[in-house]
Every structure is written in C-alpha cells, then in structure tokens.
Amino acid sequence: MLTTAEADNILATHALSQSTETVPFADARGRVLAETILADRDFPPFDRVSMDGIAIHSNALADGQTTYPVLAIQRAGEPLQALLDPTGCVEVMTGAILPTGTDTVIRYEDLSITDGLATLTIPDEMVKGQNVHKQGSDRRTFDVLLPAGTVLRPVELAVVASVGQTSVAVLKRPRVAVISTGDELVDTHQTPLPHQIRQSNAYLLQAALRDLNIDASVHHFPDDIGTITSGLSALLARHDVLVMTGGVSAGKADFVPEVLGALGIRRHFHKIEQRPGKPLWFGTSPDGQRVVFALPGNPVSTTLCFYRYVRPYLQTAMGMVAEPALYVQLAKSVTFKPQLTYFTPARLEATADGQVLAHPLPGSGSGDFTNLTAADAFLELPADTVEFPAGTLAKAWSIG
Ligand SMILES: Nc1nc2c(c(=O)[nH]1)N[C@H]1C(S)=C(S)[C@@H](COP(=O)(O)OP(=O)(O)OC[C@H]3O[C@@H](n4cnc5c(N)ncnc54)[C@H](O)[C@@H]3O)O[C@H]1N2
Ligand code: MOO
Ligand SMILES: [Mg+2]
What is the number of the ligand 1 atom nearest to the C-alpha of 247? Predict the structure, then answer.
C-alpha cells in the first residue's frame, strides 16, 4: 500500500498532456489562456481627461491667471479639438481626449462659470498636469498584458475585450465521464425497494466537476462484468478521464479493477494507507492519453478521494494552480489509532486574530454522507501519530 505522498507523486508523473483550442470570447470565462495578449495600443491610447471640468494650459496658471473664457466643449467620443488661445479654456468631460494646447484639468467643483467665464476658486492648489490620465502611462503598445497560462477571470476578460479579440486560444478541458456501478443503486427519480438506495455519488462528482468548469456525462452500470466492460470500452473511446465510483474493493461484485485491466488500463496504484478511501484505484492507458480514477463507493470515501486527489489532478491538467490545502488549527483533540492517514470532516471557523480553527465532525464513518453537509473541509492527520491535541496544525482540503 502507498502513503498519501507516494500517491501524490505517482499522480504527478502521469499528468495528462495539454492541447489548445480557440473559443469565442464569450465562452472564455474560467479558461486558461494559451496565447499571449499584447497591448494593441497605448493604455490609455490618448491623454484622457479624468474629471469633468475645464482644460487649460499650465503656463496661464503659472502666470497667476484665475479667469478663463470658455472657447469650446470637448465631450468624450468627440474627435480632438484644440485650444487656440492659450489664455482660454475648453470645457472637457471625463473620457474625452485632452484638447491640443492644454495640459491641466480643473474640476467643476474647483471653479464657477458665469457668462462664459470660468473662475478658479482655489487657484493655488491647482497643479500642472492634474486630472489627466497620460497616454501610455498604464501600458505601452506591444506590452504583454496577459501571459499564456493566465486564468481568465472577469478582470482578465475585460483586458482581452479591450484589445479587440473576439476569440482566444485556451487550453482544452479534459472530456470527463462519471460512472457509478452497483446493483443496489436506483436513480434519483425512482423509488428504491427495501434493499436498494438512490444513487448520490455520481451527482456529487458531476456537480464538483461543474465547479471546475467541466461538463461531465453521467453513466451507471449494474454489477455485471460484460455490461461494465462494453460500457467502459465505449466511454474510453470518447473521454480523456473516467471518474468511477464503487466496485473497487474486495467484494464478490467489485469488478472494476479487473475490467479496467482487461481493457488495457494500467494500474499505477490500488489502495492508499488512508481512511476513508483506502481502495482508491488509479491507472492510465499505455500511451497516457486516458486516465481512470476508480473511487471507493462509500460516499464519504468518494468525496474525500475526489477533493484530495482528483480535483488537484484535473486542475493541473487544465493548467491551473492545483487546489492548495490550507493549514488550520484543531479546535479540539482527535485520537486515531490505525496506522493510516486519517481524513476527518471538519467545520472551519475564521477567528478575529487571523487563525482558522477546525472543528472535527467525525460522523459515523464513510457511509455517513449526510454528515458532510456540516463540513467545510477534510483535515489530513498523518499516519504516524495517534494523539492530535487541540492546537495541532493540520492540512485542510476544502470540499466546495
Ligand atoms: N473485506 C473488505 N471489505 C471492504 C474493504 C476491504 O478492504 N476489505 N474496504 C472497505 C472500504 S474502505 C470501502 S470504502 C468500501 C469500498 O467499496 P467499493 O468501492 O467496492 O464500493 P461498493 O462495494 O460498490 O459500495 C460500497 C458502499 O457504497 C455505496 N455506494 C456505492 N456507489 C454509490 C453511489 N453511486 N451512490 C451512493 N452510494 C453508493 C454502496 O451502496 C455501498 O454501501 O468497501 C469496504 N469493504
Ligand atoms: O474508504 Mo473506506 O471508508 O475506508 O469505507
Ligand atoms: Mg464493494
């Protein structure tokens, strides 16, 4: 069996290869940029008036002039005008190009206009160049605005829009299928018989993948080797990643590892020294182009394995920074005897002194998924320790 760290290393050495695609700008939210976005013009592209008021030449101000005849109005969106008389002024609006012959803008709040004459109210406080956003002061033409690898959040999309790109090159997202197995499972809309349950893991996985901007298809197979084999074979042809749940332990109907092997998926590990989630199985096709995670079916185990291993793996595959574990402080002591890394659900509480306290919520084991609704994260408590006193620092893997 592997330690959690050994499992992390194996996953890192079997990263999915990345390829790119071009998507319309409107669909680029959350994607990872696969090209460099350069400034097509200076930012701002002209000396931009940044306050409504009047534009004057600072020489007149320096000469002690306090009253200026208004000779023109320059609105935002109007072509460049000029102040022909350096002792006059132009009324200017925020966003306008600064008129030729002016270099300083006085706000309406700092002047009064009567009969076409603007009079400064606090001339001594006016400074040459004020209220002008100088051309190129933010970025110059051909400056790199966004390097490849940038995640496109709304602020980055605004930058992409401003350079006029209607489409962008981004990293492809993996095609992912979620597959549950088990004769005891019926779908949400069905009424289970006394020995059946409604399936929930596949919907947890689908929703969690959606949070990663991945639209996964969902499938279910009964515990029948032939059906699972043909079903997985078809799904492997059309997907890069299969995330399975159930059928990976020691039971008479736990066919998943055997079927994956028969389909040519090479096992890189099966079983990690951890609770929950011990029977986690991971493999790839020989060329590394297909990846299969087979998660243990107990719902808490599926949840832990997804957020602890699958999510960081997929984030890396998509060129994003993998979800980091937070370091938090145990709010009360925890005892765990088995020589296994123990992941306990916990509620997190941010305290006024900048700490994050973790309140463990052990629940009643790896079948108790209702317990997770009160949790924010799983705490990772190392295998070599039995007693974890209050105050112990622990990694916390968020679940949402
Ligand atoms: N003799 C042993 N028995 C078990 C071991 C072991 O090492 N030796 N491991 C235990 C551990 S740990 C886990 S976790 C489970 C893993 O089970 P499987 O991956 O084989 O999953 P199943 O047998 O199919 O189901 C287990 C449990 O989870 C429920 N389940 C499965 N799929 C779903 C779903 N989509 N939605 C909701 N619930 C689901 C299923 O009904 C079972 O109750 O094995 C232990 N046994
Ligand atoms: O993954 Mo299992 O919880 O250790 O039931
Ligand atoms: Mg089983």
Answer: 20
Q: Give the ipTM.
A: 0.98
Which of 298, 302, 340, 343 for a ligand 1 pocket mutation test, highest count of atoms within 8 Å of Cβ? Answer: 298
Residues 85-103: pLDDT tens digits? Answer: 999 999 999 999 999 999 9
pLDDT above 90 for 275: yes
Q: Nearest ligand, CA of residue 341? A: 2
Distance, in Å, from the CA atom of 345 to the CA atom of 314, rounded to the nearest integer, reads: 22
Q: Which of 226, 235, 229, 176 is nearest to 206 (CA)?
A: 176
Query: How far does residue 394's CA lie from ligand 2's centre (Å)?
Result: 21
Q: Which atom of ligand 1 is nearest to the CA of 298?
A: 28
pTM for the structure as a whole: 0.89
pLDDT at res. 324: 87
Give 55-76 pLDDT, tens digit per residue: 999 999 999 999 999 999 999 9
Q: What is the DSSP string of 281-326?
A: EEEE-TTS--EEEEE-SSHHHHHHHIIIIIHHHHHHHTTSPPPPPE
Residue 315 token pair: 């984030």
Answer whether 131's CB lies under 8 Å from 107's CB.
Answer: yes
